[in-house]
TrEMBL record:
Catalytic activity: 5-dehydro-4-deoxy-D-glucuronate = 3-deoxy-D-glycero-2,5-hexodiulosonate
Name of protein: 4-deoxy-L-threo-5-hexosulose-uronate ketol-isomerase
Gene: kduI
InterPro entries in UniProt: KduI (IPR007045), KduI/IolB_isomerase (IPR021120), KduI_N (IPR027449), RmlC-like_jellyroll (IPR014710), RmlC_Cupin_sf (IPR011051)
CDD domains cross-referenced by the UniProt entry: cupin_KduI_C (cd20491), cupin_KduI_N (cd20294)
Cofactor: record remark: Binds 1 zinc ion per subunit.
PANTHER family assigned: 4-DEOXY-L-THREO-5-HEXOSULOSE-URONATE KETOL-ISOMERASE
Function text: Catalyzes the isomerization of 5-dehydro-4-deoxy-D-glucuronate to 3-deoxy-D-glycero-2,5-hexodiulosonate.
Amino acid sequence: MRSIQKEEIRTRSEFRYAHHPKDVKGYTTEELREHFLIPELFVKDQISLTYTMYDRYIPGGAFPVSKSLKLEAIDELKADNFLDRRELGVINFGGKGKITVDGESYEIGHREALYVGRGPKDVVFEATDEQPYFYINSAPAHKSYPTKKVTKKEAEVVELGDSKYSNKRVINKLLVNSVIDTCQLQMGMTELQEGNIWNTMPPHTHERRLEVYFYFDLAEGQTVSHFMGQPQETRHIFLQNHQAVISPQWSIHAGAGISILTFIWGKAGENLDYGDMDKVSVDELK
């Protein structure tokens, strides 16, 4: 892992390699966290990005407080502009903010999303009278689709789970192919219902797609245990509020929170079918 600090353009980036599941079996807690946990996405007046070799996916955060922040191309892209060969998804889980794409401004409110297709040269994040938290995901793109704002009212909403199993939840599909056109990027937000602690349980894998989970809405001082690994070789990582975890294609991705929580999921790969998953029965987990 290496870190590059670029103070002049207010962008901080990290690089993460992909891993063989047999190697991960031997990782210590510290090594597991080093390779899969993204501990800090929101730094005042900075854009923080993590470039992962899993489907060349980039999760990150833009946190404009006193300055506007332009999305710049990082070294790993070998491009003049960030979106020359990429698409971008943004979900704001903070107060109202503004995103300007090649001169056209979009007001993005609490739990609203913006999709930006391949090609625009200037993407700028700004705070208005409130403090936004712009959570970013990006994936390679083979063509350009129009920029589009998506509100929660426009999302495809699915209710899953049962309080009997402590996994009742509401899934808000915001940037998915049933709502907008994308190349491969998909993003949404899952809200656990009061008294329920488990997300994505029963678990699954999908070898055709990487996924990244970003957790928020955790009460102060609380934590969530994220479970990963092959179904018969599971591991766990404890996360705090506003932290993310990379979930490889061969890994389950489920979590149990000490308090109520919400998480944003983002994924990319060769299949846009949301139901494309290899389900695992809970009594098969080890």
